[in-house]
Amino acid sequence: MAAVAFRLGQRVHAAGDPARVGTVRYLGPVDGHPGDWLGVDWDAGAGGRHDGSLAGRRYFVAAGERSASFARPTALSAGITLPDAIRNRYRVEEFTKEEQDEMYVFSSSQKRVSVELVGKNKVEEKLKNLNDLTSASVSYMGVSSIGPGDELKNLVPNLRQLDLTGNLLSQWQDIFSLCEALASLEILDLTNNTMENDFTDSSSVKNIRVLVLNYCGVTWELVEKIKVSFSCLSELHLMTNRIKAMMTPVGNIVQGFDTLRLLNLEDNHIDSWDEIVKLSYLRSLEQLHLNKNMLKHVTYPSNPPPLGSLGDAAVLPFEKLRVLLLGSNQIDEVLSVDSLNLFPSLTLWLSTPILISTFLKDVRLSDNPVADPAKGGVPRFVLIARLGKVKILNGSEISPRERREAEIRYVRLVMGKAESYDPEEIKRLHPRFAELKAFHGIEDEKPSSRTSGPQKMASGLISITLKCVGPSMGEKQPLTKKLPPATTVGKLKSLCESFFKLKDVKLRLYLEEEGCPMPQFFEEDTVSLMELGIGTGSTIIVDEES
């Protein structure tokens, strides 16, 4: 095959290896090497030898220092059509020798015995007629074109879900032809196909509900064009596209996407919450996935657009949002946590006097500094108490008992610090404190003038249970002790050594919390039980350092 059979920008794969995919960046001679050559910039992980230069001469600029190489035309493949890929993947006739051998086992006398597969005939009969195929995956099979539309339509007319991950598609005209040929298609996965941003077609695609464009080199300018053609999307996945900003054609609000319920922007380069606010008026949006970006804070939009600019003055920012994933960002302040309480709820009145509310109920903050006590963040119980509406935190459901214990502990924690701040400062730093204190009926500790000495001291003690779990500590019964709230972690460790008669063991203490996937160890020996929010009825686990 001559180099003229290829074009610049064309997606190709190594001959015999459809998983090794790259883009043609150069066509022509190479000094000192006769014949036709193609310069290929291989996708991440596919390997290469240089950056597009050889022997001191630059032929093209590659994405990485060692992502490029030169290859003969015969060493590359321009791919196959989608119908051919489907037949290759789902064929049931003309098995290779290796595939035939897998259908037999050898008996003790070394005779080949056919393996009878349960339902095999039924499956074969079904696949002979691909009309019944509703879901297909042809990932990494070198698909470069859709082929004749009628051929695809007649081959799999009832296909509803198609996975095209890691193929050679790049032109949107092919995608429009595909959607037109497969009228039943609803879910289309184009992950790892480098799609061109030159989007000039004005076709209208009504059948696609879920569009996956992860690792496709998509820009937000392209997304603005996609929403016009794919006007009925309920899910749009845009992971790992290096998106940093939402460039909108008019104003600072992303409009359209009237049916979009889920938007996945994970693992991009978004570092400003102002960019996310541009999405706040997507009226059907219920789930927003923002894990693995570079966000530093979260706020609820306080300046809505001018009346009428969205055609409905009554619309609220993030009106239907109930799932917000913010894991692995750079959020380091609890004020961002508090702001999540401002996201509106969706309420439904029934005929009976019962109010059912759907809140922003699923939040992920894991791998953010604010959720890591070791980095100056706060433990899980503080997050739960501050997030009054959340039902699931960091993938773990919050049970009613865990919420109650977390809120009571949080109130005690704030009360332990209240003497150092004036009431207004407490209200600013802990917006839910007064509400939770009243809800759980927790009263301020008032000194009694009628008690003194031992009686006064005893009235201020807290009762806690200590459980010893260290593997080298031996079996020990739990102990319940009354201690002053001012007891520090370091002092409690010393007391545990005495209570449980432990010698030469370095202790670690943590609170037993229902539903907490990871224990929150008490790291600082100088912190008191009151400052940790620990009160009567708490159980502290006594473990040993590993």
UniProtKB/TrEMBL annotation:
Residues 28-72 form the CAP-Gly domain. It is found in: Cytoplasm. Its main location: cytoplasm. Keywords: Chaperone, Cytoplasm, Leucine-rich repeat, Repeat. One of its GO terms (cellular component) is cytoplasm. Pfam families: CAP_GLY (PF01302). Supercomplex made of cofactors A to E. Cofactors A and D function by capturing and stabilizing tubulin in a quasi-native conformation. Cofactor E binds to the cofactor D-tubulin complex; interaction with cofactor C then causes the release of tubulin polypeptides that are committed to the native state. Belongs to the TBCE family. This is CAP-Gly domain-containing protein. It comes from Oryza rufipogon (Brownbeard rice). The lineage of its organism: Eukaryota, Viridiplantae, Streptophyta, Embryophyta, Tracheophyta.
